[in-house]
Design brief:
Elements lengths: L17 H19 L3 H16 L4 E5 L1 H12 L1 H5 L6 E5 L17 H10 L7 E6 L5 H12 L3 E6 L5 H4 L3 E4 L14 H20 L16 H15 L3 H10 L4 H8 L4 H10 L4 H11 L1
Length: 296
């Protein structure tokens, strides 16, 4: 496996000046970013299929072990506050259980039974999207989870940093970022981990865009859970409608904090009209604004 290879180039790394060590690490990070570009068509295809399933009420499921599992958790936990994705529609299958997020659990990644049980316990089905992440592409836990999910009709996405890895054969949507050997041999928290984070960021963000949770590059489904985010909500309403701060604040108040509804209210709709326009457009703000404009 390329991610486990030892590079003679870095065999005396521990004797180098600190700046040279950092330069080597930095170079590795840049190569990780470059390794993702060839996978963009695969990411787009995976996202497009996922959208249809998620519109039918499906869940996003992240499966992985060790570093890969933690990176999946990081991606998933950012979706509710950023895009108001429901917490109960994100599932985490981590080898070794929740405790393994904070502390390594030895041998957990080798448990095929645990991977299968995680899928069964969460009753994964045809509307669900299961994303398995494994730098080696050979993690038994993750592969078992993907195979069981596929048998139940779920969409399966496999992310690996090694070509010809079993995980890429075990899923309907293989995504490869061939990051090669690490500066510190086998330390896949570095190049491989960076590439995985980028892929997940791109994948989940595109899914949220296609699910109409972004309008004009703005997070219009965002949860305003603190003063900073409430201020950001007001600014977004002002940017979209060209209204003043007072109008934006009042619209958000009338909308009960729902930013899309607030935009329509700031445009002159009463709350019931705004909600009706959004219902008719299935939550697509662009369509709702066009619908409201026609009805004026």
């Amino acid at each position: 496996m390329a991610t486990e290879h030892f590079s003679t180039r870095f065999q005396d790394l521990d004797t180098w000046p600190s700046l040279d060590v950092l330069s080597a690490f930095y170079e590795g990070q840049l190569s990780a970013v470059a390794a993702v570009r060839p996978s963009l068509p695969a990411i787009a295809a995976a996202a497009e299929e996922a959208v249809g399933r998620l519109r039918r009420g499906g869940r996003l499921v992240y499966a992985g072990a060790g570093t890969s599992g933690r990176i999946g958790v990081q991606d998933g936990t950012e979706l509710p506050p950023t895009f108001n994705w429901p917490d109960d529609r994100v599932v985490y299958l981590i080898a070794g259980g929740v405790g393994a997020i904070m502390q390594a659990v030895e041998n957990a990644e080798d448990s095929v039974e645990e991977g299968v049980e995680g899928i069964r316990k969460n009753d994964i089905g045809p509307n669900d999207v299961v994303i398995g992440v494994a730098a080696s592409g050979r993690t038994p836990f993750t592969i078992a989870a993907l195979k069981e999910a596929a048998a139940r009709g779920a969409q399966t996405i496999g992310i690996s940093n090694n070509p010809d890895a079993p995980i890429l054969e075990a899923c309907s949507h293989p995504i490869l970022a061939d990051t090669g050997e690490e500066v510190i041999a086998g330390s896949t928290r570095m190049k491989a981990g960076t590439a995985q984070k980028i892929i997940l960021n791109l994948l989940s963000s595109l899914i949220m865009v296609r699910l109409d949770r972004v309008y004009r590059g703005l997070m219009v489904n965002m949860r305003a859970t603190n003063a900073k985010l409430r201020n950001r909500s007001e600014i977004m309403v002002m940017q979209i409608t060209d209204c003043d701060e007072g109008t934006a604040a009042d619209a958000i108040l009338q909308a009960g904090g729902d930013l899309k509804t607030a935009v329509l209210i700031a445009m002159g709709a009463i709350p019931s009209e705004a909600q009706g326009a959004l219902e008719r457009s299935d939550g697509n703000l662009r369509k709702a604004l066009a619908d409201f404009s026609k009805s004026e």
